[in-house]
Design goal:
By secondary structure, this protein is an alpha+beta fold. It has three domains: about 110 residues, Acyl-CoA dehydrogenase/oxidase, N-terminal domain (Butyryl-Coa Dehydrogenase, subunit A, domain 1, Orthogonal Bundle); about 110 residues, Butyryl-CoA Dehydrogenase, subunit A, domain 2, CATH 2.40.110.10; about 150 residues, Butyryl-CoA Dehydrogenase, subunit A, domain 3. The protein contains eleven helices and ten strands. Strands 1, 2, 3, 4, 5, 6, 7 and 8 form an eight-stranded mixed beta sheet that branches. Strands 9-10 form a two-stranded antiparallel ribbon. Helix 7 packs antiparallel against helix 10, helix 8 packs antiparallel against helix 9 and helix 9 packs antiparallel against helix 11. It is globular and about 80 Å long.
Length: about 400
């Protein structure tokens, strides 16, 4: 499988790298210390990122989007997460919402909501996870009861990225008007906050601190039934396919963070002196650098393989779980080794190493923990499920 970038992709990568180096890296630490990003700041940053394809990356050009491939999106995602993982999350989730609308059969929502998302006038998010339904979305309990021209939503969603700043939320819920198990009754509906208010409460967390993450509570929330999002195939299967892409994105985020940590460690090892020589000459430092380089390269190849398969029309369940499991674990481990090379400076909040560590550690949990990924990989290899 060829992972060499085309000339166009190389140009895209260089332009993004230059922008990140000049505009984003210098402000990342300061914004991270402020906590969850304000809606005003999020709009401003997203608008600046539009020319590079970050907003609605996979939305086709005929719908007003950048029309990037999965590999294109992997390239730009890696560079943004490398510079400022929280901002990368805000952009990525808004893009996912735009793509969800673009790929549905709801022409009304495409016309009404897609332009605002693509211009970054609106911010979007996806709401699947619940207090008792994380790795098993079939266990979700948020319900939607049809009442005339509206669905009435009741339930709680947890760990919803962009939840507190989102204008549009694509909510997965269980249709109370249908019989059968949850897998057959789950569907998605777009909730416009101005029209259908809901409560959003920020959840404090150890990493990706600028990335708003919320609990959403829907209490008799009335949503026009015309906001239902449907796509080809079963709704539950489409949610599962979305999780495959999400795992790829989590993997490439941690590849970016790990690359940043490695580069910081190399720079420090070349300049820091002890015992009359730069520490990069010490064998144990070189061993750590070599281990980090191997791990970053392996994570990148596994992740790019999964994105390549997406471009080929496959839904790489096994490969996306392999990439997610390996890259997210390597992300925080490489950051930890980089901290070790920095010594006490690695603990200082004046250096970005501790941010890299905290941010990468957070990505081992969303979209299925490392252990869940191992169970998926085992199921795909053996044809036997440990769960269902």
């Amino acid at each position: 499988m060829d992972f060499n970038l085309t000339k166009e992709q190389q140009m895209l990568q260089r332009s993004v790298q230059e922008y990140m180096r000049n505009k984003i890296v210098p402000i990342a630490d300061a914004y991270d210390k402020k906590g969850p990003m304000s809606k005003t700041d999020a709009h401003r940053f997203l608008k600046d990122l539009i020319p590079f394809g970050y907003v609605g990356a996979l939305v086709p050009e005929e719908m007003g989007g950048p029309g990037l491939t999965y590999m294109d999106s992997a390239i730009i995602t890696l560079e943004l997460r490398k510079a400022y993982a929280s901002l990368g999350g805000i952009a990525g989730i808004t893009s996912n919402a735009a793509v969800g609308i673009a790929r549905s059969d709801n022409a009304m929502l495409k016309e009404k909501c897609l332009p605002g998302l693509l211009r970054a006038d609106k911010i979007g998010c996806m709401a699947i996870t619940e207090p008792d339904a994380g790795s098993d979305p079939s266990g979700m309990q948020t319900t939607a009861a049809l009442d005339g021209d509206h669905y009435v939503l009741n339930g709680t969603k947890m760990w919803i990225s962009n939840g507190s700043i989102a204008d549009y939320v694509i909510v997965a819920c269980v249709d109370e008007s249908k019989d059968g198990g949850n897998r057959d009754r789950i569907f998605r509906i777009l909730v416009e906050k101005e029209i259908s208010p809901f409560k959003a409460s920020e959840i404090p967390k150890m990493g990706v601190k600028s990335f708003p993450t919320s609990e959403l509570v829907f209490s008799d929330c009335r949503v026009p039934k015309e906001n239902v999002l449907r796509a080809s195939g079963k709704n539950f299967d489409n949610i599962q396919k979305g999780l495959i892409v999400a795992r790829c994105n989590a993997a490439v985020a941690c590849v970016g963070i790990a690359e940043a940590a490695l580069e910081a460690a190399v720079k420090h090892a070349r300049s820091r002196t002890q015992f009359g020589k730069v520490i990069g000459k010490f064998q144990m430092i070189q061993q750590l650098i070599a281990e980090m380089a191997i791990e970053v390269e392996a994570a990148k190849l596994l992740t790019f393989k999964a994105f390549k398969m997406l471009d080929e029309g496959a839904f790489p369940r096994k490969e996306s779980s392999i990439a997610k499991a390996y890259a997210t674990e390597i992300g925080w481990k490489v950051a930890s080794k980089a901290m070790q090379i920095h010594g006490a400076y690695g603990l200082s909040t004046e250096y970005p190493l501790e941010r890299y560590f905290r941010d990468a550690r957070c990505y081992t949990f969303p979209d299925g923990t490392t252990q869940i990924q191992h169970l998926i990989i085992g199921r795909e290899i053996l044809g036997l499920s440990a769960i269902r």
